Amino acid sequence: MPGTVVPDKASVASILHQSAISMILKRLAHSTRRLLSNSIHGNPLDLPRVARQTGTWAHADIEWLASKVRTVAGDFAEIGVFRGAAFRKLARLASEQGKRAHAFDSFVGMNEPAAEDGGHYPKGKFDIGGPDQFSSLMSEAGVERSCYELWPGYVPDCFTAVPPGKQFSLVILDVDHYHPTLDALRWLSPRISPSGILALDDFLPHADILASKAIKEFLQTNHDFERIAFFNQQLILRKLAPAADS
Ligand SMILES: C[S@@+](CC[C@H](N)C(=O)[O-])C[C@H]1O[C@@H](n2cnc3c(N)ncnc32)[C@H](O)[C@@H]1O
Predict the structure, then answer these.
(1) Could you tell me if 225 and 138 lie in one domain?
(2) Domain-embedded: residue 170
(3) Could you tell me the residue range of the domain that residue 210 belongs to?
(4) How many domains does the chain have?
(5) Is the pLDDT of residue 1 over 60?
(6) Is residue 244 situated within a structural domain?
(7) Strand 168-173 to 148-152 pairing
(8) pLDDT, position 45
(9) pLDDT grade, residue 39 (50/70/90)?
């Protein structure tokens, strides 16, 4: 066409080169922003880069948690498993580390809310119809019944049959209500091995109801844990080593 300028080979190569550089620079800027945002929030820089949805545990995050306790003695557990969306991953990871996984739940949903729950989560919410139904869901997900244990009942009754001396290296706690969260934290605290991880869902630092209230009260009096990450309303604590005798 008259007047059309056809770029020569050198110009085309230069344009491609510049767009490749600009793409690399954009990616670098994105990674730097992510790392900075992790460090600003006090999070470890190796936290997975993953899309997160509040109220659920990202499998990449569970993998990351499990990687931190590979050399820590003790089983894995989740208290408040619902349909096992997180537990199926936790059970597989436990098995890879030669550990057992424990699922604690009423399996018939929430108990009555207390005054501290502000009327949230009525009795029966998250009812899946009992522990057998949970096992069916696990087997549909390819998790064999032999690699996990079930502890049905409301917190704290579901803890009574657990053998004394049982230790855990990784526990996810996700029961929403104030009283079972506080009871579970108190029960768990001496049962988490040194360097073991306690992963808490539904932590809103400024809320004064539900699990947030229980977590804040627990941390005011219990100084056995350090905070290692906070993302997606999930607070990750690590048990400190016992103080050496002076
Ligand atoms: C939000 S769901 C857990 C979701 C699950 N962690 C996940 O990632 O898919 C809360 C679970 O806690 C259980 N739960 C709540 N209060 C409980 C209590 N007092 N005792 C036992 N289980 C309880 C419910 O039955 C429900 O399965």
Answers:
(1) yes
(2) yes
(3) 59-239
(4) 2
(5) no
(6) no
(7) unpaired
(8) 93
(9) low
Tell me: do 200 and 85 sit in the same domain: yes
Sequential DSSP letters for 106-129: -SB------GGGTT-S-TTTTB-S
Q: Tokens for 33, please give them.
A: 């922003």
CATH of the domain at 83: 3.40.50.150
Q: For residue 28, count other CB atoms closer than 10 A to its CB.
A: 10
Determine the distance separating the centroid of ligand 1 and the alpha carbon of 171, expressed in angstroms: 14
Q: Residues lining ligand 1, CB < 6 A?
A: 56-57, 80-82, 85-86, 105-106, 109-111, 126, 154-155, 174-177, 180
**C-alpha 195 to ligand 1 mean position (Å):** 25
Q: What is the mean pLDDT of the chain?
A: 91
User: Do 202 and 155 reside in the same domain of the chain?
Assistant: yes
Determine the distance separating the centroid of ligand 1 and the alpha carbon of 130, expressed in angstroms.
Answer: 12
Task: Report yes or no on 156 lying in a domain.
Answer: yes
The answer on 115 and 30 residing in a single domain is: no
pLDDT at 227: 97
- For residue 105, which atom of ligand 1 is closest to its CA? 22
Residue 149, sorted as left (phi over 0), alpha (psi -120 to 50) or beta, turns out to be beta
Determine the distance separating the centroid of ligand 1 and the alpha carbon of 14, expressed in angstroms: 58
